[in-house]
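Page 37, continued from 36.
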């Protein structure tokens, strides 16, 4: 099903596996509490903590060692983090990682950093010049579809068994071949001075940092990714997610997580329908 930009937020015109989290009856909640918790929970990660810190909070609250997530969000980013709890849930992480994702991103025009995000060192500054919505929209349209994208030097992509950031932090330049990724939709949200806000729906393996840098180059002024929020991961929306800040209250975290825990079979049903996109 094609994705589109018609003035409404991307994905709001489609629906699958949305609505309020599954609310279990008291008897079922007691059963899960007594047994080892297992399932999938949607977390709205705030900007600041790492994805691993969110996983650690879930692990600590539920007392489960086997906990993972379906796609890292950098510390400066916020939004949907799909966390899998228990062995049967972590076994479906690969399927969850393959889902289409939706993001809202803020680009800082005129400034490039070595990491392509706000955590890096500024390496170039250029005047932004005169930009208008029409020019930006025409630029964004060129990135829709299958494109070739070079992975960032500071990324977890492996080279000889080690992540690229391992080499980048040591000043070792490793050039990875551009990879084919798919941008299903890309639209302008706002243009305010040197800040450009976009919304995109993209396929597996897409680096929004690289997309931001490439858009900056196409506009002739350079850019880096200043802020990022993940809105969707496959059929799941951040609107359904539990606020990550609530995980830091030790007394409340466990009962909240148990109420929001989705059985693996329900998650698999959502993935099988693929009704969202």
């Amino acid at each position: 099903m094609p994705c589109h930009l018609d003035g409404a937020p991307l994905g709001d015109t489609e629906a699958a596996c949305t609505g309020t989290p599954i609310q279990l009856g008291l008897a079922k909640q007691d059963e899960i509490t007594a047994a080892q918790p297992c399932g999938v929970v949607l977390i709205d990660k705030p900007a600041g903590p790492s994805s691993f810190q969110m996983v650690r909070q879930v692990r600590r609250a539920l007392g489960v060692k086997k906990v993972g997530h379906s796609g890292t969000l950098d510390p400066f980013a916020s939004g949907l983090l799909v966390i899998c709890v228990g062995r049967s849930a972590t076994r479906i992480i690969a399927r969850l990682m393959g889902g289409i994702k939706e993001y809202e991103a803020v680009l800082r025009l005129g400034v490039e950093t070595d990491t392509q995000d706000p955590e890096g060192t500024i390496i170039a500054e250029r005047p932004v010049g005169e930009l208008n919505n029409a020019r930006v929209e025409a630029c964004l349209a060129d990135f829709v579809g299958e494109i070739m994208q070079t992975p960032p030097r500071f990324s977890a992509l492996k080279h000889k068994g080690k992540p690229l950031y391992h080499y980048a932090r040591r000043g070792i330049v490793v050039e990875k071949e551009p990879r084919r990724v798919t941008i299903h939709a890309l639209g302008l949200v706002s243009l305010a001075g040197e800040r450009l806000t976009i919304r995109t729906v993209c396929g597996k393996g897409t680096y929004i940092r690289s997309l931001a840098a490439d858009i900056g180059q196409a506009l002739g002024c350079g850019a880096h990714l200043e802020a990022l929020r993940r809105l969707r991961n496959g059929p799941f929306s951040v609107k359904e997610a539990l606020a990550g800040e609530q995980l830091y209250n030790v007394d409340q975290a466990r009962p909240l997580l148990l109420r929001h825990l989705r059985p693996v079979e329900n998650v698999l049903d959502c993935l099988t329908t693929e009704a969202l996109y």
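Residues 26-99+234-273 form a domain with the Alpha-Beta Plaits fold (CATH 3.30.70). Flag for discussion at group meeting. The chain has two domains: 26-99+234-273, 101-230.
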